[in-house]
Input
Amino acid sequence: MQANANNYTTDSMIREVLCLKEENAAEYGFDIRMIAAAAQLKQRQHPERIVTRILSDTEQKHGTRPLTHHVAITEL
Output
C-alpha cells in the first residue's frame, strides 16, 4: 500500500470512489437507466468535460460510430 502526496493510500482512494459511486446510484434509486440518463444530461450540459476518441481510418471510411442513445431531459 503506497501513500500519495495527500497522504491517502491507494485503498482509501478506491474506497472513496466506490462510496461516491454508491451515493450517486442511491440518488437514482439504483436504476441503471436513470443513472445513465443523468450522466448523459450532465455531459450535454458540460460538453467541454467530455473526452472523445479519434476514430480509426476504418471507422471513418465506413462511417462506424460508437452506439449512443440520447436521453431527453423529460425522461429523467
Q: What stands out?
A: Residues 12 and 38 are 27 Å apart (CA to CA). The mean pLDDT is 81.
